[in-house]
Amino acid sequence: MKNKSTVKHRVDEESATIINDGTTNPIKIELKNTSFVLRDKEPKQLAIEAKGLVKKFGEKRAVDGVDLAIPKGTVYGFLGPNGAGKTTTIRILSTLLKPDDGRVSILGYDLANEADEIRKRVSLTGQFASVDEDLSGLENLVMIGRLLGFSRKEAKERAWELLSAFALEEAGKQQVKNYSGGMKRRLDIAASIVVTPELLFLDEPTTGLDPRSRNQVWDIVRMLVSLGTTVLLTTQYLDEADQIADRIAVIDHGRIIAEGTSRELKASVGTGVFQLRLKVPEESERAEEVLSGKLQTEIHFSSTDSSAMSAQVTNTALVAEAISELTKEGIEVIDFSLGQPSLDEVFLSLTGNPPEEKGSEGYQERNHHTEGGG
Amino acid sequence: MAESFSNSSNAIDNMDNEKLRKALLIRERPKKANAITNTLTFGWRALLKIKYIPEQLLDVTVFPIMFLLMFTYLFGGAIAGSTGDYLQFLLPGILVMTVVTITMYTGMELNNDIRKGIFDRFRSLPIWRPSVLVGALFVDAVRYTIASAIMITLGLILGFRPEGGVVGVLLGVGLLVLFSFSLSWIWTTLGLILRSEKSLMGVSMMVLFPLTFVSNVFVDPRTLPSWLVGFVDVNPISLVVTAVRGLMHGVATSEQIAWVLIASLVITVIFAPLTMFLYKNKK
Ligand SMILES: Nc1ncnc2c1ncn2[C@@H]1O[C@H](COP(=O)(O)OP(=O)(O)OP(=O)(O)O)[C@@H](O)[C@H]1O
Ligand SMILES: [Mg+2]
């Protein structure tokens, strides 16, 4: 396959799988027997490219040398604690704030000179409700539609279309101040896609939302991306970045301290916490022997519960083996959990310091399993 | 009221993926709206706010009526010999005072928007940037006109007989609205600088209170001690009151009117660009 332009394959769906997860430039095609990789002539276009971005507020460097290269059609997550500089970065990228230093190109347009072109293609949903709470949901959307150039009739049609798609039809004529948090957030996002943008910024879109509303926001984001919009969102939760972002930048003190897919980040942190409880406390010594043999790590005993123990694990695949080993030995486990590394642990491992402040308690996510009989 | 739908059943709150897909699929962008459409849209927004918060109109209705009645009947006799005579003198003055006081609304609204996220949204839209302010200021002009109409109607009922006739009254109101429009730019400037709505309110009261009271709104300056007369004479509020009163009673000189026009122009030339500059460069 020396000259790929002359090679023509008829590929039917049964015999081939085309793998393009949107994050990588090469498109991989697996045929039944062979597999080969097609590369675009040009590398995938970037939605955002930034070099050496700096923003100072007085002495404080809120953004301190940020570089970004975000491919089109992906979800990119900024992950960081309060005051990390997420909002400031987003405000710079969405033309609201002038950087003190650095070069930025958004969708191929220069931020410093072509802000108007950028504004046409980009939308922002800020951290705090960026809708008019005194007006109704409908009026908010009509207003944005009119500002963007729709006629009165078109603006109204578009507004109802969005309200109905975002499950806000019932509340369309109510003042926004009476909306629940989740409804407000959805309206806020709807206002950003009255004209579906090429690039959408979402600043902490799910902070303060219940799990259901959070899922709705994620659904919207996924749908947008599947239709070609690039999304840059910020979050304080590793869990969220994990669920929705193709790539994640971990930000602290205005700097990107780590970048990669969530798998890469977690791998770089390496450890998760494995916890379990035995049915019979007396078996704990035997259990320790089995576990430390399998997991190759130190086993800690709980000081309050003699049947509970925990371990830091680097290779989570070993956990399953350890459990089945215990079962083989006749040691009954009544409860076990394997925790992802928490944001705290990511920070600890990346900076050697825990994050200075915490937004809320929701940093840690645990995949919890309970076994009935063992 | 809030609970009626935020606690609604899940069925209502469920998003329909197919609808969502269809709504997001549409990507055509309409032709960019022009500056006038933008301005009218923001004007519409300000009108909607009056619809939802009619209390806003209290300041332009109840208070001036109270003032007018209070001063006419309480001091009319003492100040001018008779309530009827005093009303002829007082009404244009109170009108100016009322309208000038409500000029600070736009500044307060703007300050409010900034502290909420909506300011960011407007600034990230591809629109003619001054339209946010100009639209709101036009609606204020509507508010000034409403206030004027109420006052003058009440005045006519109480016995106000403007010698300048309908034309004189209309010209007087027009001049006042023009001056107030330019004055609003000062409050928008401050609205962009000051941290909170309250501090803006404080500052504007501090400025407006002495300006309106130590003026010729209530009394003829000739009755004042001479050191005060100096101040009253250069007080821009006095200039406006003199011109408006003159127009309504058909005795205004072109010099008096020219002073108001100059004052309006100077204020606008300084504060409108300053507002826009601050608006563009707001952190
Ligand atoms: N307008 C401003 N003036 C002065 N300092 C500011 C301003 N905006 C932000 N900062 C400071 O810059 C730093 C970064 O703030 P930023 O809002 O970007 O953080 P963030 O990551 O969005 O935090 P959060 O999770 O709380 O939203 C903070 O220390 C903040 O105090
Ligand atoms: Mg923030």
TrEMBL record, chain A:
Residues 355-374 have a biased composition (Basic and acidic residues). Pfam families: ABC_tran (PF00005), DrrA1-3_C (PF13732). Residues 352-374 are annotated as: Disordered. It is found in: Cell membrane. The keyword Transport applies. InterPro entries: AAA+_ATPase, ABC_transporter-like_ATP-bd, ABC_transporter-like_CS, ABC_transporter_ATP-binding, DrrA, DrrA1/2-like_C, P-loop_NTPase. Residues 48-278 form the ABC transporter domain. It is a peripheral membrane protein. Signal peptide: none annotated. GO terms for molecular function: ATP binding. Keywords: ATP-binding, Cell membrane, Membrane, Nucleotide-binding, Translocase, Transport. NCBIfam families: drrA. Belongs to the ABC transporter superfamily. Drug exporter-1 (DrugE1) (TC 3.A.1.105) family. This is ATP-binding cassette domain-containing protein. It comes from Evansella alkalicola. The lineage of its organism: Bacteria, Bacillati, Bacillota, Bacilli, Bacillales.
